[in-house]
Amino acid sequence: MYQALYRKYRPATFDEVVGQGHITETLKKQVASGRLSHAYLFTGTRGTGKTSCAKILAKAVNCASPVNGNPCGKCAACRGIDEGTVMDVVEMDAASNNGVDSVRALRDEAIFSPAEVKKRVYIVDEVHMLSNSAFNALLKILEEPPEHLMFILATTELHKVPATILSRCQRHSFRRLDTASIAARLKYVAERESIDLTDDAAEVIARLAEGGMRDALSLLDQCSGAERVDTEAVYSAMGLAGRRSTAEMLGDIARHDTPAALERLQSLWQDGKDPATLLGELSALQRDVLMTITAPKSGSLLLSGSFDADTLGSFAREMSAARLIANIELIQKALNDMKSGQAKTVCELCLITMCEPELSAGLPELTERVAALEHAVRTGAVPSAAAQEAAKSKPREPEPPKREARKPAPPKQTREQPPEPELTPPPPDDDDAPPFDMPEPSAPPPPPQIEPPRSVQPEPSTAEPRSAPSAGGTGLWEKLKKAMANKIPRGLYAILSDPSQVAAEYADGRLALSLASDFAQGMLNRPEIVAKLASEAAEIAGKAVKVEMFSGLPQTAQASAEDGADKLDELKRFDIVKFT
Predict the structure, then answer these.
(1) pLDDT in the model for residue 209
(2) How many other C-beta atoms are found inside a 10 Å radius of the C-beta of residue 325?
(3) Which stretch, 83-97, 274-288, 483-497, has highest mean pLDDT?
(4) Cα three-residue angle 132-134-138, rounded to 5 degrees
(5) Which of 150, 294, 422, 538 is the most exposed place for a label (fewest CB within 10 A)?
(6) What is the pTM of this model?
(7) What does the alpha-carbon distance between residue 400 and residue 162 come to, in Å, rounded to a whole number?
(8) 73 SS3 class
C-alpha cells in the first residue's frame, strides 16, 4: 500500500530533523544526561517538526540503548512506539478531545505506573483547543506530576495557552525552515523515490511550502506524476500562473496597458488559473520590487526568491514605491472581496484600477499620483507614454491666431506704468511741498481708466447679462470666499478661490457658480460643500441663498484663462522649457 511521502520520510531520530538544530541538540543532551523535564511545550507553525520531535523524545526517554541522545530504533520500546502498540505512550488530539471529561480521564489514568516502558508519555497536539475547565483540570497534575509521567504539549497558537500552563512547561519554539534546507531535503527524497526533480523545481516547491517541511513533501507528492518535475510541471500541477506570466502582467501594469493586461488574464483564466492565486503572485512580485527599492543593500535577505535580480531591478526602475504600495493595497482589498464570489470580475476591476490609477479616488492612489507628479517635476520626464500621446494629440494650432488677434500688449504695459510716476515726482533738491501737489499728477489715471475694463472684465463678464446683481454679486462672492477659508479643506478652498476654475454670479437670492473643469465639478459639486456655501452665503446676505453649480466658464473667464495660456506660449521660445 502506497504511503504518503510526508509520512514515509518522517524523521526517526533527532539528527534527521531538518532546520531545528537549536532544539534537537538541547533535547539530545537532556536525554543523554537524564535531566529531563516533566512537561514540554513545542510551539511553531505547521509542518515544522513539533509532533515528530515529540515522538522521537518519547522513544528516546524509553529507549533501552540510546545513542548520543537519539533512540536506537531497534529495541522493543522504539519499535512498539513507532507501530503504536505501546499503551503507555498516548497521542491525543485536543481539537476533538477538548472537554473537561477527557482531561479528567487522562489525569485519573496518568497516576498508574507504566506497564511496558520506563515513562508514561502523553503527547497532546493542538493543546490550545482545550476549554478553560479542561486546562484547569490539566493544571493540577502538571503542578505535582508522578516521577514516571511526562507531558509533551504542541500548539500552533501559543497566545491561546493560559499563562499558568506556560509557566510549568519547558518551552521550545520551532522556526520556519529556510528555502535551501527544504530544497536539499526534497532532492534527497526525490533520489530515494526515483523522481526526476530539477533544482529550480525544488526551489519553487520550497518557496510554496512557506517554511513547512510537511507541506513541501505533500507538494512533491502531488507533482511526482510527471516524468520530469521541472518548474512548468510544478506550476501546472499547482494551478499557478508562473513567474513569466506574472512578470509579463506586471509589465502591462507598469506601462498602463489595460487591454494587454485583461487579455492576459483571459488567457490565464481559459487555462484554468485561479484569479486569487494570480493576484497573490502579483502582490508577492511587487512586494519584492518594493523591498529592492527601499532596501537595495540588505533587501536580498527579505526577498521571497521567486524572481531573479534582473527582473526586480527593471521593475524598480519603472515603478515608484508609492505606486507599488497602492497596488499591493488594491490587491489585498480585491482578495477580501473575492470571498463573496465573482472572483474573475473582482480581478478584472483590480487590474484596470492598477493600470489606470486615476479611476480610483482612494488615498493610496492619490498619493501615488502626487508622487508621480513630483517625480516628473524633479526629472523633467513625463510619467507615462500614454500621457505623452495625449499631450501630442491635443490641438494647439488655434492658439497663435488668438494671440495675434489680441495684440493689446500696451494695456499690459500700462499696468506696469504706475511705478513710473514714483520715479518722476521727486525733485530731491526742493524740500517744498511739490510731493503734496501730486493730486495734479492725477493725469496718470488714464492708465487706470484703461486698466479697469481689462482687470474688471473677468467679474463683470459673468454679470454682464444681469447688470443689477453685478454690484452686490461681486461683494457677496468675495466675502463668501473669505468666510469659507477655514471651513473646507485646503485643497477644495484652493479650487474655490481660483478665478480660472470658478466664476460666480449672484442675483435674486441665487448664486450661480461656473466650474471650469470636470475635476473642479467633482470636487466642489457635492451636497455637503453646496450646503456649507449656501449656509455661509445666507449669513452674509441676510436671507436664504440658493447655490447652483454649472460646468464651463463664461466667455470672459475663458478669455482670462486664454491669456494665461498665451503667457505660457511665450515661454516656448526657450529650449529648456518643455510642455506636456
Answers:
(1) 84
(2) 18
(3) 274-288
(4) 115
(5) 422
(6) 0.56
(7) 81
(8) coil
* Phi, psi torsion values for 510, nearest 5 degrees: -130, 120
Comparing 157 with 388, which gets the higher pLDDT? 157
Q: Round to whole Å and give the CA distance between 21 and 23.
A: 5
Determine the 3-state secondary structure of 41 from DSSP: strand
The amino acid at 246:
T
Measured CA distances, 547 to 339, 435, 473, 523 (Å):
44, 50, 13, 15
Flag whether pLDDT at 25 surpasses 80: yes
Longest CA pairwise span in the chain (Å)? 128
CB atoms under 10 Å from CB of 304, counted, come to 13
CA distances from 429 to 433, 434, 435 (A): 12, 11, 12
Number of other CB atoms surrounding residue 164 within 10 Å: 13
Question: pLDDT, tens digit, for every residue of 103-148?
Answer: 888 888 888 888 888 889 999 999 999 888 888 888 888 888 888 8
CB-based contacts of 57, cutoff 8 Å, min separation 6:
27, 31, 40, 121, 152
Q: What is the DSSP letter of 67?
A: B
One-character DSSP codes across 504-565: EEEETTEEEEEESSHHHHHHH-SHHHHHHHHHHHHHHHTS--EEEEEES--HHHHHHHHHHH
Alpha-carbon distances of 60 from 89, 171, 421, 515, rounded to whole Å = 12, 18, 106, 82
Angle ∠(252,258,260) on CA atoms, nearest 5: 60
H/E element holding 503? strand 502-507
Indicate the pLDDT class of residue 512, thresholds 50, 70 and 90.
confident
Mean pLDDT for 550-573 is 54
Q: What is the pLDDT of residues 535-561, one digit of tens each?
A: 888 888 888 888 888 877 665 555 444
Cell numbers 473643469 label which residue?
517
How far is Cα 196 from Cα 191, in angstroms, rounded to an integer? 8
Mean pLDDT on 28-44: 92
C-alpha cell at 261: 493586461
Across the strands, what pairs with 67? 70
Q: What is the mean pLDDT of residues 500-520?
A: 83
Report yes or no: 56 and 26 within 8 Å, Cβ to Cβ. no
Averaged confidence pLDDT in the chain: 77
Cell of 145: 506530576
The three cell numbers locating residue 80: 512498539
Residue 474 CA to residue 506 CA, distance in Å, equals 8
d(CA 263, CA 504): 47
Neighbours of 120 (CB within 10 A): 25
The string over 511-548, giving b where at least 16 C-beta atoms fall within 10 Å of a residue's C-beta and e elsewhere, is bbbbbbeeebbebbbeeebbebbbebbbebbeeebebe
